[in-house]
Each structure stands twice: as C-alpha cells, then as structure tokens.
C-alpha cells in the first residue's frame, strides 16, 4: 500500500511542480510559443493511455502494469530534467504521461482487489489525499 500511495502522490504533485517551475523552464529553454504543449502533451498521453492500461491490467495483471507505468513515469521525469530544448521537453513529458496513465487506474483497481467493499471507500479516500 505504501508503494501505491507514493506512486499516486508522485503523479498528483507533478502538475503542481511543473506549474510552479514553468516560467523558469520556458525562459531557459526559449520556448514561450510551445509552453502550453508542456502541459497538454502530458495530459493527452495520460488520458489516452489510461483506457489502454485499464484493459491491459485485466489481461496481463495489475502488478506488471503498475511497475511498468511507475518506471516509465520515473524515467520520463528524469529525462525531462535533462531536456536541452522545449521540443525535447515536450517529448519527454509525453513519455512521463504514458507512464502516469498506468498509475491512477491501476492503483484504484489494486485497492478494489485488495480491500472488501466496506473498507474500500476509506482506503480510496486515503489514497486520494496522499
């Protein structure tokens, strides 16, 4: 459960961090015209892959999809830190979003698999506050 809470926290706080740092990032990478794509690409890839990962977790299993998504999110986050220009940053944000698309739906499904119906709402609420 700790891994699930940490993964949910990682993907949730990511938007806040980028929002705060974006003015500095854009000025250093000279990408004012493309700054909206930094957010859009992450959200777009997350939205598209959420559905795919939900089905894959039914076919392959929850744990492999969760580990793959979390790993891809972390790799994408690390690559974003090394982006030499705004276009590369947008591409790495897409990688990050593809990983994040696995974290949220699979964490909810894992919680639903582990906990009985009576306790599920409390654990989901706890997960969402993390």
Describe the structure.
With 130 residues, the chain is mostly helical. The chain has a single domain (2-129), classed as MFS general substrate transporter like domains (Growth Hormone, Chain: A, Up-down Bundle), CATH 1.20.1250. It has 5 helices and no strands. The chain has helices at 2-29, 35-59, 62-81, 86-114, 117-129. Helix 2 packs parallel to helix 4 and helix 4 runs antiparallel to helix 5 (117-129). It is elongated, with a radius of gyration of 16 Å.
Question: Which class of secondary structure composition applies to the elements?
Answer: mainly alpha
Radius of gyration based on Cα positions? 16 Å
Q: How many beta strands in the DSSP annotation? A: 0
* CATH architecture descriptor name: Up-down Bundle
- Major sheet size, sense and barrel closure: none
Number of helical segments? 5
CATH top level assignment: Mainly Alpha
Shape: elongated
Strand content: under 5%
- Topology as a string of helices (H) and strands (E): HHHHH
Spans where pLDDT lies below 50 across 5 or more residues: none
What is the end-to-end distance?
12 Å
Question: What is the CATH H-level superfamily?
Answer: MFS general substrate transporter like domains
Summed up, the domain count is 1
Helix content: over 70%
Mean pLDDT across all residues, rounded?
92
- CATH fold annotation: Growth Hormone, Chain: A
